[in-house]
Amino acid sequence: MDTIPLPARIDHTLLRPDADRIAVQALADEAVRHRMAAAVVLPRWVAETARRLTGTGVAVCSVVGFPLAHERPATLVAAAQGLIEDGADEIDMVLSTGALRSGNTDWVTAEVTAVVETARGIRPNALVKVIVEIHLLDDEGLRQACLLVSAAGADFVKTTTGFTGGGATPEETARLRRLAPAGLRVKASAGIRTLDQALALVAAGADRLGTSAGVAIARDWEEQHGLAV
């Protein structure tokens, strides 16, 4: 039986273009209050969020190549370096689906490897999660993506940015878990709004859940377990 509290699997996320300081501070405080895994914020808010979360046990996460992954490799590396130097513990980067579908597997591997090595060169325990846009890949493409991500040393493979027309479903999450190497963890994200959805995704193989509805999900889970905060 899974003993990890559901809130500890939640990456509490705010990546909207209108995210302001008050909203970002609230996000960080909510993540602490409900003992979530991480607060996911836009790059400009990483340093401030890291200061706010120091000593709380909640990780700071931000994004690289989000949402389209069409930056130059040097730009991705510089972005990863800046995030870690600002205090990020985790990076969610977007895999270049276009490069993968074009057969440029060396390019894909090099990009992910460069971000992983850059992050861990500064913070050895940094986690890197790679978004593979499962809705754009058939089984063979998804299997190949997962193998490349694993070979590059990343920690997680993640379902989607939410910008490709679909959210996380138990079926797609289970497909990702089935096609990913055993040592590669799975993050489900996009469209997760309810406790029932969250539990179904964990049952399908998700180790982390990326959602902007983290508070509602955590509260429902806490009430269900007599732990209301």
Can you characterise this structure?
This protein has helices at residues 21-33, 46-53, 73-86, 97-101, 105-122, 139-151, 170-179, 195-203, 214-224; strands at residues 10-14, 38-41, 59-64, 90-94, 127-131, 156-158, 185-189, 208-211. With 229 residues, it is α/β, with parallel strands linked by helices. It has a single domain (6-224), classed as TIM Barrel (Alpha-Beta Barrel), CATH 3.20.20. The model has no long low-confidence stretch (mean pLDDT 96).
Topology:
Elements: E1 10-14, H1 21-33, E2 38-41, H2 46-53, E3 59-64, H3 73-86, E4 90-94, H4 97-101, H5 105-122, E5 127-131, H6 139-151, E6 156-158, H7 170-179, E7 185-189, H8 195-203, E8 208-211, H9 214-224
Parallel strand pairs: 1-2, 1-8, 2-3, 3-4, 4-5, 5-6, 6-7, 7-8
Helix pairs in contact: 3-5
Q: What is the CATH class? A: Alpha Beta
Spatial order of the strands forming the largest sheet: 1-2-3-4-5-6-7-8
Compute the gyration radius: what is it? 16 Å
Instruction: Identify low-pLDDT runs.
Output: none
Oligomer: single chain
Please give a quick description of this structure.
The protein is 44% helix and 16% strand. It has 9 helices and 8 strands.
Brief descriptors of the model:
TIM Barrel, eight-stranded parallel barrel, 9 helices, 8 strands, 229 residues, alpha/beta
